[in-house]
Amino acid sequence: MLADLRLAIRLQEIDNRLVDLQREIAALPVHISIIEKKLVSHERKLEGDRAALVANQKERKQSEAVIQDWEQKISKLKGQMVEAKTNEQYRAFQSEIDFCQTEIRKREDRILDLMGESEPLDRNVKAAEAALRTEKVQVEAEKDRARERTEADRKAAAELQQERAAIVSQMPATTVLRYERARKARRGIALAEVIDGRCNACHIALRLQYFQDLKKDVEIMSCESCQRLLYYNPPIAVEDLAGEPAPAVHE
């Protein structure tokens, strides 16, 4: 294979790897943003549960205070009832006491409801607090890994850029121009292997004479269809693999 073509193949490998590195470098901040937003949503959910628990406890205390007020009022009404002069006054006091007792029962029922609601809320808050502590540790660890990976990717990209520049300096300017033109036109893929007489990128069969000229390995040739630079790897004979002629088969 021509030396310039080998350099072009290595150049393609470098460019492919640079694209992968740049894609990963760009994706890491997005990944971190996603996990941070997820953490914030969990924090807000926990704040909502805490607020609901606080409101529950506040309402229970208010109901208990109201019950205490009603009970004091009942105690006062009973004292006044003793001094009632007529049946009408007595019934009026009793009616008011009944009303207070009804209000007390309503408040007691509400307290029972609030107690039933507070238990799962309390469990949710405690579980969410524990999960959030773990998640925060995981997010920080993930951010550290992302920073380390980004730094490693940038270092690798810089090294590849140096190698790329060295390779380009060794190649004829016309070959570099053909390579760059094909890479730009074909979404980053500037070379294609020829397999069974076809361009392995666009799958168009080469003209027989064109294929024969390619196999002579005299000059760099391009696919007449997709314009990618072509290379051909001839099949390896068994004797080439073994380092010695293949044994004869006797029938």
Features:
mainly alpha, Helix Hairpins, about 250 residues, about 75% helix
Strand content: under 5%
Fraction in helix: over 70%
Unreliable parts: 246-251
CATH topology of the largest domain: Helix Hairpins
Gross CATH architecture of the largest domain? Orthogonal Bundle
For the largest sheet, list the strands in their spatial order: 2-1-3
What report would you give on this structure?
There is one protein chain. This protein is mainly alpha-helical. It folds into two domains: 3-170, Helix Hairpins (Orthogonal Bundle), CATH 1.10.287; 173-241, no CATH class. It contains five helices and three strands; from the N terminus they run αααββαβα.
Helix-strand layout with pairing:
Layout: H1 3-82, H2 87-170, H3 173-185, E1 191-195, E2 198-199, H4 208-216, E3 229-231, H5 238-242
Helix pairs in contact: 1-2
Summarize this, please?
The chain has 5 helices and 3 strands.
